[in-house]
Amino acid sequence: MVYSTEAAVRNQHPAIAASPDGAKAFVQRLVMQTETNSHRYVTHLRCLWEKMLVKLHVDQLLAWGK
Fold first, then answer.
1. Which domain of life is it from (predicted)?
2. Any idea what DSSP says for residue 19?
3. Cβ atoms of residues 36 and 30 within 8 Å
4. pLDDT (tens digit, 9 = 90+) per residue, 22-48?
5. Which of 38, 42, 11, 41 is nearest to 26 (CA)?
6. What CA–CA distances, in Å, run from 61 to 34, 51, 52?
7. Of the four, 27, 29, 35, 48, which is 20 to 30 A from 15 by CA?
């Protein structure tokens, strides 16, 4: 899969093809960026989940106080 991606990068970007590791470095950078974005997304979801749990807990405490 990575090889075919590298080949596609070489075909689409002649400047990258000029250096032997250019396509490989490009793909590695792309994978790293994707992993970083995925981690940010998961962290964002975790924060939303924790906020929701806190809100539910506060709402429950307020309901018990009535």
1. Eukaryota
2. S
3. no
4. 667 777 777 888 888 888 888 888 888
5. 11
6. 41, 15, 14
7. 35
